[in-house]
């Protein structure tokens, strides 16, 4: 079964200038699989995550394309359908842990509301159980605290506990650990993926942390300028990337990536698009660029795809490197 199916999705932010944040996304995620979405800041990861949850701002306009989650046409849902979709299918964990909780309400009360919405028992004992499952020490005390009274790592674990107790079919996590220090980060990531596996939850994980992606995700989609430029099994895409952008990304200093910093060793920055890219949006920064790259728009192939018109040459090069 396919959990998420996206075809040629184009999204633009309208305003004084038009920004095309998604320039034709093609993506499929199998049920129960975990897919990491990686790419520099500004590549469209958060926009993609928000549109899958229909959480994108009003200024965003879907220009074309289709988006299905669990066979449901998400873009066509009415208010009731959307409410059901967000309640029964989706959980979303934002980057800022404290901001994703309600600052005016004690943590226990927030857990209670989630449990009630699920039609579950809302007792204090049940609230404590949920926090214990996230290895939160002193959970009896934590349920009486307000979000600002706990650390960032704790708040994020609470947010994950709230998301996972609903046994969502699809979990979207937008750089959920970027604000955490490395030890807490490892533990939180492990808990999240262990719970997701136990529940059969499909995970879309937006991340800069390539070593963690390699460790926990089945598949990787590399985004650049609002397109998925390469996707495939995590080990293959990170270990033997084919697309010149993935190759540059994978070559960025891994110790920096491990510390959760921005991947910034490729000179220049991703472009801000105002309409469809004519050729390949990466061409201006690409070491393998040929004249045709600025005019020929690479199109996706059926299998492990790489949006580069020189893909066959790149593959041959990767094969040579591997055999060397
Ligand atoms: N609300 C918005 N209004 C206008 N432009 C936006 C908005 N949100 C994102 N963008 C633009 O869309 C592009 C993709 O951004 P984003 O999805 O946040 O990328 P990422 O999460 O990969 O950093 C960027 O050029 C960004 O400036
Ligand atoms: Mg983002």
Automatic annotation (TrEMBL):
The keyword Transport applies. Residues 4-250 form the ABC transporter domain. GO terms for molecular function: ATP binding. It comes from the Bacteria. It is a peripheral membrane protein. It is found in: Cell membrane. Its main location: membrane. InterPro entries: AAA+_ATPase (IPR003593), ABC_Ni/Peptide_Import (IPR050388), ABC_transporter-like_ATP-bd (IPR003439), ABC_transporter-like_CS (IPR017871), Oligopep_ABC_C (IPR013563), P-loop_NTPase (IPR027417). Keywords: ATP-binding, Cell membrane, Membrane, Nucleotide-binding, Transport. Belongs to the ABC transporter superfamily. This is ABC transporter ATP-binding protein. It comes from Microbacterium salsuginis.
């Amino acid at each position: 079964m396919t959990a998420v199916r996206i075809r040629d999705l184009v999204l633009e932010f309208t305003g004084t200038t038009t920004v095309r944040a998604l320039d034709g996304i093609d993506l499929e995620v199998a049920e129960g699989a975990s897919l990491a979405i990686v790419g520099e800041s500004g590549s469209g990861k958060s926009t993609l995550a928000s549109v899958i949850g229909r959480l994108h701002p009003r200024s965003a306009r879907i220009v074309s394309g289709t988006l299905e989650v669990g066979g449901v046409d998400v873009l066509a849902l009415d208010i009731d359908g959307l409410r059901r979709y967000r309640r029964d299918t989706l959980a979303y964990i934002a980057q800022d842990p404290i901001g994703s909780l309600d600052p005016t309400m004690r943590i226990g009360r927030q857990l209670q509301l989630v449990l009630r919405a699920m039609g579950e028992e809302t007792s204090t004992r049940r609230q404590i159980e949920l926090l214990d499952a996230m290895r939160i020490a002193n959970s009896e005390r934590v349920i009486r605290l307000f979000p600002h009274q706990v650390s960032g790592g704790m708040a994020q674990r609470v947010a994950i506990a709230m998301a996972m107790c609903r046994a969502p079919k699809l979990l979207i996590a937008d750089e959920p650990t970027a604000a955490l220090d490395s030890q807490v980060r490892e533990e939180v990531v492990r808990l999240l993926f262990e719970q997701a596996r136990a529940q059969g939850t499909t995970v879309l994980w937006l991340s800069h942390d390539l070593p963690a992606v390699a460790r926990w995700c089945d598949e990787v989609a590399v985004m650049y300028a609002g397109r998925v430029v390469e996707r495939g099994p995590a080990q293959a895409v990170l270990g033997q990337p084919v697309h010149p952008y993935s190759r540059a990304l994978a070559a960025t200093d891994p110790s920096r990536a491990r510390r959760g910093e921005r991947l910034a060793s490729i000179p220049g920055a991703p472009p801000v698009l105002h309409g469809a890219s004519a050729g390949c949006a990466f061409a201006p920064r690409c070491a393998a660029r040929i004249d045709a790259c600025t005019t020929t728009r690479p199109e996706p192939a059926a299998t492990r795809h790489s949006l580069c018109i020189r893909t066959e040459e790149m593959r041959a090069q990767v094969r040579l490197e591997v055999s060397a």
